[in-house]
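Why do we bother with holo predictions? Because pocket geometry can differ from the apo form. Keep that in mind while you read this record for iron/sulfur cluster.
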Amino acid sequence: MKNSSVKIKKEALVKVALFYPNKLETAVSNLGYLTIYDILNRREDTLCELFAIDEKYISKSYNSRRSISDFDIIAVSMPFEMDIFNLVKFFKVNKIPFYGKERNKFHPFIIGGGAYFTLNPEAVAEFFDAILIGEGEEAVNEFIDVYLDSENKEIVKERLSNVTGYYVPNRYSIRYDGAYVSSFRGNPPSVTKRITEDINKYVPASLSNLPNSHFKDTFLIEVSRGCPYSCAFCSTPSLYHPYRYRNLDRVLTKVNEMDYYKKVGYIGSAISDYPSLGKLVDETKIETITLSSFRINRIDENIIMSLKERGLRTVTIASESGNEKMWKKIGKGINRDMVFKAVDTLNRCSIERLKIYFIIGFHFETDDDVYDIANLLNEISKVYKGHITASVNIFIPKPQSILQWAPLAEKKTIKVRTGILRKYVRSEINVDLLSYKTAVLETLFSRGTREFSDYIIKSESNNIFNIINKNKDYFNEFTGKLDTERVLPWDFIKGGIEKEELKRKYLSI
Ligand code: SF4
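The structure, written out:
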């Protein structure tokens, strides 16, 4: 299938607009987005250019200022539910009909991929011709092969539905009963998440020609994918199942080729569990190294000292709760001794800043548990010699996590609990709190069904909270506790942690 009128790349048969529904600097800090860009442009037959939500790049590409209408395919990379509003804006500004069924053969083929779609794409599913559920390194090449081999969009869709990981929404007819599926007809009957067999084969090249990202001058590289732990509130273990890590030599070879960068950022949900982390740090030639957060029980003095010599000033840890009862219930696998041992190590290493993550609003949490968060923070601040920031999130019941059936806490409960933190946490500790409104939207859009699509489109011209308030009873069902016996909108996605296993763990909390 070919619809190219202008060629920039000599052999390009197909042009892909890679759209990230947020600012360009955020887009180019996202490794998934960068990886797809790199893989597509390695193909002789494909040209891929960047689009983002910045006014300058929403209709014209960053690379060549070519108009969106010159592209055959729009590939949307969307990791977070809150970017839905930007997605709607993109369709509107570019005069693209929202629903796939309203578009014709002259419109581009629109495909989605990224963490948001892999957890539950339903709220926006009907806007897409196809959606990749899972990882893209191998699947994206198969998509381009299918596209180029097919005579028209319908054939692309039909063929893609036979490729592992591809979900073609218009091949499904789904009826809902509020937040549950009452009837589901589709071909194939379920979609198996795509997993990249060997992540060592794909290490994105330097993208230094891209605009300044949040990680300016930093070469980002993913060293591990997924997580070997199973915190009850977290969807990462299922989203990127199974846990994998990149081979040390592969990472070092790539990073040391990039020694013209000032910094390297090693990315991974469980980075402190990376085997040979010490060797990785010691043998990295780039002067400054940054790591994503450490597990409290994996803070090692030698590694922290080596990292300090390489520019580490802030250590981020995730305590999530403040007492043993809560750590046990959420499956965090830590205790008070571990917390204070970690603080002691950071003091010995003279680390200047400590950032600690917490979550409030679990359905089994009481006010006393939140007082314990305040007490823990205050006790840490008495012994820690540097500056502390506490980042407090509200629990969101994410699809494919153990707590996927749990309710979002009521507004009044969150008000009381944030009040406790505001009043009792010592003033020298910075406390950042997530807004309740954001938590409501995140819960709704991560649990949503196809019935949300019209509301999402209306949000372009109406305040979303007015829409939610007008349909309170309907939306309350999505923020409430879900029934473990009923079919959830994302149950058709297979290949993560089995629903039965999640349910067994949920019911045992
Ligand atoms: S919260 Fe962190 S340690 Fe726990 S499962 Fe998620 S990624 Fe793993």
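The radius of gyration is 23 Å.
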